[in-house]
Design a protein that fits this description.
Radius of gyration of chain A: 21 Å
Number of strands of chain B: 9
Number of domains of chain A: 3
Shape of chain B: globular
Distance between the termini of chain A: 45 Å
Strand order of the largest sheet of chain A: 11-12-13-10-4-14
Order of helices and strands of chain B: EEEHEEEEEHHEH
Oligomer: heterodimer
CATH class of the largest domain in chain A: Alpha Beta
Helix content of chain A: 10-25%
Largest sheet of chain A: 6 strands, mixed
């Protein structure tokens, strides 16, 4: 099957990007050094093409009730022009995807799913919409998505828009004109830095990309690929579906039980997965299973996804879900599910790195938190 | 970065120099370094070890992956590049020069390619 191309494909190639197959999309992995791209986002600004993300519009008089039924969050309680991190679960509580939902109007929401799960989410929402006065629309081809992330992002964007950026709060959005193009401008991201995501018409993507690149030259804005996006989110302790999250796990297993809103009042409090999630919540309270923790290595070999976490005797006590060299810390870091008995910050455990036990220290997540 | 004509190459993307007093210098190509991305850790054989052509003798770790390092030659390791151990980014920035990996007293080699043959292999 041929890969899907974003509206910026020709531009990425002209920039000499190394491309990669990501969930069926041909996406930029990096343009030059992924380490330098990472550090640019931490200290200046980076520009990403995230057009692979799956946009789904849910609209109608009962759009909020539908999302309250279909997702674990209390979505109808979200204010207009605000956004929320949430999840969609199966009836058995297993996580189908993690999502950001933007309320774009009183009766309209934009649901953004991971590229790898977009069809699953679309199918689930469509099925769960039965009986609600609401429509679910596949808008994957209606939007390109750019992200400007980093401490200089606001200053760069301010050169291209009259929108009230200082008034745009984290996890909020605005209809805005950026470089003479109509967009949805959201203060969201996946890097641990301040930044913006720009949902635009695919036909406007190239104009916006070049305008942002031009506006950001003096601030040190660089194009950034998915490789540094992954290390940025890892340092920020943010989960990635398929690594920290899966259908085998509930939000409570992942330490993200706070996204499950048992207190929602719509639909009589019922939502898909409620019963299983109540049991998962009770089990996590009474007998915590493995916990999601951070690991930092003093060595140089990198603990990577799927490697085993072991105790002093070599017994397996956990599993790495993501691992990478950390450009900011200058050390290898990893996220792992570790038996609760070994999950206290400060504990020393080890990772089986291709047959050799490398000592690592358990730390609380995130590894990196920006100064505000 | 073009592949220097004075070197010989393997299909596993290593290069080696013509032997001087029986000793060849070994590294990986710019093409390999680019494909790996930022290299953060290199594990090399120790001086005195005997390496075997076509067999694993170390590893190269980049942000995204870890790859085996194959020796293009059989023989005793006479020197390793401490600078590259201390600063693995040299493999990215100077793959054919400061980023060399180790030296071997060559007894035998794998089938080797000249620069033209290697260019053809990687479609350069």
């Amino acid at each position: 099957m041929s890969l899907r191309l974003t509206a910026l494909d020709a531009l990425h190639r002209s920039l000499g990007a190394t491309m990669t197959d990501f969930a069926g999309w041909d996406m930029p992995l990096r343009y030059g050094s992924e380490r330098e791209e990472h550090l640019a986002v931490r200290t200046k600004a980076g520009l990403f093409d995230l057009s692979h993300m799956g946009e789904i519009t849910v609209s109608g008089p009962q759009a909020g009730e539908l999302l309250d039924h279909a997702l674990v969050g209390f979505i109808s309680a979200l204010g207009v022009l605000r956004a929320r991190y949430t999840m969609i679960c199966r009836e058995d509580g297993g996580i189908l995807d993690d999502l950001i939902v933007y309320r774009t109007a009183d009766d309209e929401y934009l649901v953004v799913a991971n590229a790898s799960n977009a069809q699953v989410v679309l199918d689930a929402l469509t099925e769960r919409a039965a009986g609600f006065d609401a429509t679910v629309r596949d808008d994957r081809d209606a939007y390109a998505l750019l992200a400007v992330q980093g401490p200089e992002a606001g200053g760069i964007l301010a050169k291209l828009t009259d929108a009230d950026l200082p008034g745009l709060k984290y996890y909020a959005l605005l209809p805005a004109t950026v470089a003479d193009r109509q967009v949805w401008l959201a203060r969201t991201g996946y890097t641990g830095e301040d930044g913006f995501e720009i949902f635009c018409a695919p036909a406007d993507a190239e104009h916006l990309w070049t305008s942002l690149t031009g506006a950001g030259t003096d601030e040190g804005l660089v194009p950034c690929g998915l490789s540094c996006r992954d290390t940025l989110r890892l340092e920020a302790g943010m989960p990635l579906y398929g690594h920290e999250l899966s259908t085998e796990l509930t939000p409570f297993d992942a330490g993200l039980g706070r996204v499950v809103r048992f207190d929602k009042t719509t639909n009589g409090g019922e939502f898909v997965g409620r019963k299983a999630l109540e049991e998962a919540a009770a089990a996590a309270e009474a007998n915590p299973p493995r916990k999601l923790v951070g690991l930092v290595s003093e060595g140089r070999r990198v603990p990577r996804a799927e490697y085993s976490v072991v105790d002093a005797e070599g017994a397996v006590i956990g599993r790495i879900t993501s691992g990478s060299p950390s450009p900011t810390l200058g050390k290898p870091i990893a996220i792992a599910y570790v038996d609760a008995a070994h999950a206290e910050p400060g504990a020393t455990v080890a990772v089986d790195v291709r047959g050799k036990a490398e000592p690592v220290q358990v730390v609380a997540l995130p590894f990196y938190k920006r100064a505000r | 970065m073009s592949n220097p004509t004075h070197l010989q190459y393997t299909k596993e993307h290593e290069w080696l120099t013509a032997a001087v007093d029986g000793v060849s210098t070994i590294g990986i190509t710019a093409h390999a370094a680019d494909a790996l991305g930022d290299i953060v850790y290199v594990q090399l054989p120790a001086v005195g070890d005997t390496v075997t052509a076509g067999e694993t003798c170390g590893e190269l770790e980049s942000t995204k992956s870890v790859s085996d390092l194959f020796s293009p030659a059989t023989g005793e390791v006479t020197e390793v590049n401490q600078e590259v151990i201390d600063d693995p980014a040299l493999v990215n920035s100077e793959p054919f020069e400061g980023g060399w990996l180790f030296k071997v007293r060559v007894e035998a080699t794998d089938e080797l390619l000249d620069a033209d043959g290697y260019n053809a292999l990687i479609g350069a």
